[in-house]
Specification:
single chain; about 325 residues; alpha+beta; 9-stranded antiparallel β-sheet; 8-stranded antiparallel β-sheet; about 20% helix
């Protein structure tokens, strides 16, 4: 009986020790996890995008800084001390990317590895965000690496796995270098013109019911009556008209020019689009300065002027009257 009692007491004591050991292990793990959380900062940016007023991008190797500034709800890019309408979608995507930027690991903890990851002051691309006079984010973006996918499937028809792209960066004023998924340089390492609004026209053909066209030595109006378009009292060719309207729905260009630098400010071509669904008529004007330059401006993108000489934009926008009375072959 005494032996059984001793065994029972030993079992109870062992159970208590085991429970205490488990508690100590859990406590130590919790402390270790808390310590890791304090030292590893996975969230790299914390700001309210609606309050960001300025974005400055300092290119690698000390190129000229790109200044983006918000006025009310619209963004502008400054080039040669002139402000131009910026592409709102591009900047919104930039801010969203930074807000959701997460570090996957710490690549380095001191300055000795900065040059390796190209995050030194001279090698990095720097992006600074401000809300008024307060800096809310300041990143030094360095090199990126690409890891080939480990393709273990020998089937040539199997879906190929994507490789892994990793970008390296640090917070300005801090020592640690972080690794993050993706290719940051594609978003931020651009020319100033890349941030400008490239739109010339953005309409829907069903919105239009009246079009005015002015060419050198010729002007005419197209009006919609019922389902038909009319020019000088005659119904135009429906296929030609449909093709023309489709070409007006979205037009863009990335070739900019300073309108004030054009030697000839005389308007040579004009297009005005009317429609009950439009908040205001849309107008496109052309300044044919010389044989090398054709300046084009649009009321849908005020401030930007495009050099459309080496494009097909003139051909799309400005048709002669004869075009609308011939069938598409």
């Amino acid at each position: 009986m005494s032996t059984k009692t001793n065994i029972k007491k030993l079992s109870i004591a062992f159970g208590v020790l085991l429970a205490l050991s488990a508690l100590v292990l859990i406590r130590n793990n919790s402390k270790s996890e808390a310590s890791r959380n304090r030292t590893f900062q996975s969230e790299l940016c914390d700001f309210d995008s609606s309050k960001v007023s300025d974005i400055t991008i300092y290119p690698k190797r000390k190129g000229e800084a790109i200044q983006l500034h918000r006025q009310n709800s619209d963004w502008y890019v400054t080039i040669n001390n002139q402000q131009y309408a910026a592409d709102q979608g591009t900047i919104s995507n930039m801010l969203a990317l930074l807000m959701h930027l997460r570090a996957t690991r710490i690549a380095a903890t001191d300055k000795s590895k900065w040059e390796k990851y190209e995050v030194t002051d001279s090698l990095a691309l720097r992006v600074e965000l401000k809300a008024g006079s307060k800096t809310v984010a300041d990143l030094m973006m360095g090199k990126f690496s690409y890891q080939q996918p480990k393709n273990t499937d020998q089937n040539p028809y199997a879906q190929r796995q994507m490789g892994k792209m990793t970008s390296y960066l640090r917070l300005n004023g801090k020592k640690k270098v972080f690794a993050t998924d993706g290719l940051l340089s594609m978003t931020f390492n651009r020319q100033a013109d890349d941030f400008r609004n490239h739109k010339i026209l953005a309409t829907q053909k069903q919105q239009l019911d009246h079009i005015e066209v002015t060419l050198p030595g010729e002007s005419y109006e197209l009006k919609k009556e019922g389902l038909n378009w009319i020019l000088d009292g005659q119904k135009v060719d429906s296929l030609q008209m449909e093709s023309y309207l489709s070409g007006l729905e979205y037009l863009s260009s990335g070739k900019f020019i300073d309108k004030n630098a054009l030697p000839n400010q005389t308007v040579t071509h004009k297009l005005i689009l009317h429609g009950k669904a439009l908040s205001a008529p849309v107008e496109v004007q052309v300044f044919a300065a010389d044989t090398a330059v054709v300046g084009m401006v649009s009321s849908q993108n005020k401030g930007n002027c495009f050099n459309t000489k080496e494009t097909n934009l003139m051909e799309k926008l400005f048709k002669t009257q004869a075009y609308f009375h011939q069938s598409i072959q």
